[in-house]
Amino acid sequence: MLATAGHVDHGKSTLVRALxxxxxDRLAEEKSRALTIExxxxxxxxxxxxxxxxxxxxxxxxxxxxxxxxxxxSAAVLFVVAADQGWQAQSSEHLxxxxxxGIIDGVLAITRCDLADPERVAAVREEATGRLAAxxxxxxxxxxxxxxxxxxxxxxxxxxxxxxxxxxxxPAAPVxxxxxxxxTIAGAGTVVTGTLGAGTxxxxxxxxxxxxxxQREVVVRGLHSEDVAHDxxxxxxxxxxNLRRADPGEVGRASVLVTPGSYAVGRVLDVVLAPVDAxxxxxxxxxxxxxxxxxxxxxxxxxxxxxxxxxxxxHQVHVRPLGLDHARLTVEVPLPWWVGxxxxxxxxxxxxxxxxxxxDVDPLPLRRRGAARRRAEELGAHDSPxxxxxxxxxxxxxxxxxxxxxxxxxIGERVGEWWVDxxxxxxxxxxxxxxxxxxxxxxxxxxxxxxxxxGHALDLPDHLR
Length: 465
Hints:
- It is a single chain.
- The protein has 4 domains: 2-165, 3-Layer(aba) Sandwich (Rossmann fold); 176-258, Translation factors (Elongation Factor Tu (Ef-tu), domain 3), CATH 2.40.30; 264-380, Translation factors (Elongation Factor Tu (Ef-tu), domain 3); 384-465, no CATH class.
- The chain is built from 12 helices and 24 strands.
- It has helices at 12-20, 28-33, 64-71, 89-100, 118-134, 152-165, 296-299, 371-379, 385-393, 398-403, 422-442, 451-458; strands spanning 2-5, 40-45, 51-56, 76-82, 106-111, 141-143, 176-185, 189-196, 201-202, 206-210, 215-225, 228-230, 232-233, 237-244, 256-258, 264-276, 305-310, 313-322, 326-337, 342-347, 352-361, 395-396, 413-415, 418-420.
- The protein is elongated.
């Protein structure tokens, strides 16, 4: 599953049409204006026999939210630069989004080569290749003319190579399908479409539907992929899911279908937050500690109120900085998360982007003086994610760790149904032993310390009481 990227009017849709024989522009306005406005979808079979699907995104900066919805679920990109126009403003903005989402593989297509002389084509190819490489994107370049078919065979070979080197997703993984379209079919009901990046969907599956205002169980009534009905669809696939028990009015692009109980559903996140400058070559990616030489533009953090883009969804988010490199995000609606998930924070006013990597979901409130500073120090530590979660909460259920996408902690001790941080356990044991001694000294005839009194003496954190 590849998303297109590149400046407006550089031939992304024309190239997809030439590769697949399908027009990704389906709206009358798109056809009349020769401008992609909504996400378009097409697919084809490559020479090796592998199937590849494309999400065609708008290039115009007015539709950046739609562009991010197309890039969000994609693992690789078909980056398009026109030979006659060269690198442009939205080329940089799209590359910033690609980097912010952690996409590191793809193919570079230099299009409209019939409109430029060979020297110009070579210069554009060199500049574009250099910019992509500087952003960490490995993308072999192909020179094509979509209107004549020149170079398309070589591009298909490059796409075949890309598909072959990409990691194979786990068909047994939990499903998380970010919906990009929804509609109704007479006699069938509600249908949603999306990109299945991992897991397998089957007719009859019971899923949890998370939408802006609702969370409910739905049932898969039918499945289509590439215009063919299926009983089961595995990754990576474009899929249309016919749902039972879903109200058409509550399903839209902000909706997501998940395997029940397999993700941590929450509104509050602690994250690594790093600026991604669309106009510079040295922007930091989330997870890399920025150097002291950041420009004023890069150093300025996001506004308190911004837009969070994850999967195909875009939601308002409150940003609370925690030091230079971390922040606490509060999203307007609950969403399904795993630790390590990537997202983007965008300032609609300045059009700046920040790369987000999730470190914790539903973290403890910052109520006491100095709590924000201490939390920033904790987030900057280098524990494994499981150990970090356990240290920050003293004790945790294994099922909660699984919902965060985490394994068993290396440092934990199993006590009944809990994983417990050894340092917290040692502290609680000492407190309880001291309290028992003091109790028996004061009440020598007592039969023992009541359980409720012992729990109070432990001075457990609020979330464990």
